[in-house]
Design brief:
Elements: H1 2-8, H2 11-68, E1 79-80, E2 90-102, E3 106-119, E4 128-137
Antiparallel strand pairs: 1-2, 2-3, 3-4
């Protein structure tokens, strides 16, 4: 019996070391997954907010082109949004007008509007950007 005890000495220490290493690996994996999940959630929410910011820019440009100053593209400096869920976004608008004449209708304008909303700098983990393109006309 005494011989058997000598062989069993140290077995618990080996099992304990293996368990500690396994638990440390599992903990490291979980920490990494939590970090990645957090970044994915931030980017997902940011892309939706960017789309709404770009859409807001389009709505502003449509109102300017058709209602406020018909016949001309709106002046489009970058718009910095403040307030609400679109806080911190920069919206850049571009407008390309075209004029058409059609018999029976007369002359009307077609505007190709592009709105791009961005937040952050390219290469950053939380950088988001969305673009919305719309064509509108003032034809009757």
């Amino acid at each position: 019996m005494k011989i058997m005890k000598k062989w069993q000495r140290g077995f618990s220490a080996i099992v304990a070391v293996i368990l500690i290493v396994l638990l440390a690996l599992i903990g490291g994996y979980m920490a990494t997954m939590t970090s990645v999940s957090s970044i994915n959630t931030t980017v997902s929410a940011g892309t939706m907010q960017a789309w709404f910011a770009a859409r807001s820019g389009i709505e502003w440009a449509v109102q300017q082109a058709v209602v406020a100053a018909p016949g001309a593209c709106p002046a489009t400096p970058p718009i910095n949004l403040t307030g609400g869920n679109t806080n911190g976004f920069t919206v850049t608008l571009t407008c390309s007008p075209s004029s058409f004449t059609e018999s029976g209708i007369g002359t009307y304008n077609v505007y190709a509007l592009t709105s791009r909303a961005t937040r952050g700098n390219p290469g950053e983990p939380a950088y988001v950007s969305r673009q919305v393109n719309v064509s509108i006309t003032d034809a009757p």
